[in-house]
């Protein structure tokens, strides 16, 4: 079997893991890694048995596709020539530093009928996949994604750095468009927003609350869904998925609650029965399979078969359109200036 020839452009904190995983795939030839920092590039190339290049155009003739993991502000500049040349591209999220740039890349991929995949890796998290199977039709979704400040991705704010993950997840869960958005954020270390919260409503009426922060003392990544089937909560770090669903009798006859209350002399005694008799709890431990490996496997398989990736450019543009609405309406407090700004100077 001919191996798919790939290269990784940008081998910093995340790109080096792309290189590591691709170097272990039997049906992939890691042609090289590209990084302007010679010492970093040579070291990663040495570790994974490949060559270092200082400029992306050098590897253009040698590859079937590339993984782009450079800073977001350079996504357009680095990705466009490869799409123009008909090469497959997996570009880290967000697709680009502005919505216009993201649309440019997506239109180019569509015009060239090329493969453009975007690294919304949480789609491949087994806990999210299990939650999606369990939740039914969402009525209300709450996502929390917080972490300490890492001093990475400082070229973008927390909406494009963290919230974009959950925007993509809720769009995938609802299969719907966002109709209403209101948001608030704060600048701490900056220069962009370091925390943000947004409330949204979809066209069909699902309510969504998203909170993200990179100024939290501990890390948390959770998705909670209240749906037609009950309640499902997924911890995307521990990969524990918990469901609470009505027991069969309550599901078939919701009015039985009123009958039970009416027939009980002291209804306060019923509180201990709600989560023992009336609601059924199940706990699931999702697979420990590596999400980044699954994402790269999807990319390689799509190159081989011509299939559409799980997260194509269109999905990434849709997420960026919502992120732009969050940013454009952001009521922003700056701890640095002590002032509140209506609308975001960070949306461009």
Question: Termini separation (Å)?
Answer: 46 Å
CATH topology of the largest domain: Dihydrodipicolinate Reductase, domain 2
> Structural class, from secondary structure content?
alpha/beta
Parts with pLDDT < 50 across at least 5 consecutive residues: 344-348
Shape, principal axes of CA atoms: globular
How big is the Rg? 23 Å
Mean of all residue-level pLDDT scores: 91
Q: Give the total of domains.
A: 2
Q: Into which percentage range does the β-strand content fall?
A: 25-35%
Record keyword descriptors for this entry.
348 residues; Rossmann fold; Dihydrodipicolinate Reductase, domain 2; 2 domains; 11 helices; disordered C terminus
What is the gist of this entry?
This protein has helices at residues 15-23, 38-47, 75-84, 99-112, 126-134, 158-174, 248-252, 256-263, 274-278, 291-305, 313-328; strands at 4-9, 28-34, 51-53, 65-68, 88-92, 116-119, 138-146, 178-187, 195-202, 207-213, 220-227, 230-235, 240-246, 279-285, 330-334, 339-342. The chain has 348 residues and is an alpha/beta fold. A 10-stranded mixed sheet has the order 14-13-12-11-7-10-9-8-15-16. A 6-stranded parallel sheet has the order 3-2-1-4-5-6, with helices on both faces.
Account of the 3D structure:
This protein is an alpha/beta fold and 348 residues long. The protein folds into two domains: 4-121 and 291-311, Rossmann fold (3-Layer(aba) Sandwich), CATH 3.40.50.720; 123-289 and 323-341, Dihydrodipicolinate Reductase, domain 2. Helix content is 34%, strand content 29%. Strand 8 (178-187) and strand 9 (195-202) form a beta hairpin. Helix 3 runs parallel beside helix 4 (99-112), helix 4 (99-112) runs antiparallel to helix 11 and helix 6 crosses helix 11 (313-328).
């Amino acid at each position: 079997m001919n191996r798919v020839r790939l290269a990784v452009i940008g081998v910093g904190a995340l790109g080096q893991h792309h290189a590591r995983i691709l170097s272990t795939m039997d049906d992939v030839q890691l042609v090289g890694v590209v990084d302007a920092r010679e010492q970093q590039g040579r070291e990663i190339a040495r570790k994974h048995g490949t060559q270092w290049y200082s400029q992306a155009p050098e590897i253009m003739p040698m590859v079937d596709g590339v993984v782009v993991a450079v800073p977001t502000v350079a996504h357009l500049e680095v990705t466009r020539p490869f799409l123009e040349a008909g090469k497959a591209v997996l570009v880290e999220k967000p697709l680009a530093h502005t919505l216009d740039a993201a649309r440019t890349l997506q239109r180019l991929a569509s015009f060239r009928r090329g493969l453009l995949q975007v690294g919304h890796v949480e789609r491949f998290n087994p806990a999210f996949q299990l939650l999606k199977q369990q939740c039914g039709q969402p009525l209300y979704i709450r996502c929390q994604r917080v972490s300490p400040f890492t001093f990475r991705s400082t070229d973008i704010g927390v909406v494009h750095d963290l919230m974009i993950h959950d925007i993509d997840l809720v769009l995938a869960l609802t299969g719907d468009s966002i109709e209403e958005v209101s948001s608030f954020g704060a600048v701490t270390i900056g220069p962009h927003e370091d925390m943000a919260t947004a409330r949204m409503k979809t066209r069909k009426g699902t309510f969504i609350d998203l909170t993200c922060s990179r100024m939290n003392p501990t890390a948390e990544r959770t998705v909670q869904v209240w749906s037609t089937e009950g309640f499902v909560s997924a911890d995307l770090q521990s990969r524990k998925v918990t469901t609470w669903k009505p027991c069969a009798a309550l599901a078939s006859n919701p009015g039985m609650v009123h009958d039970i209350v009416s027939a009980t002399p002291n209804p306060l005694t019923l509180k201990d029965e709600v989560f023992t008799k009336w609601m059924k709890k199940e706990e699931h431990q999702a697979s420990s399979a590596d999400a980044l490996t699954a994402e790269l496997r999807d990319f390689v398989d799509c190159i081989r078969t011509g299939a559409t990736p799980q997260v194509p450019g269109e999905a990434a543009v849709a997420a960026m359109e919502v992120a732009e609405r969050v940013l454009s309406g952001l009521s922003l407090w700056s701890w640095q200036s002590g002032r509140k700004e209506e609308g975001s100077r960070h949306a461009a």
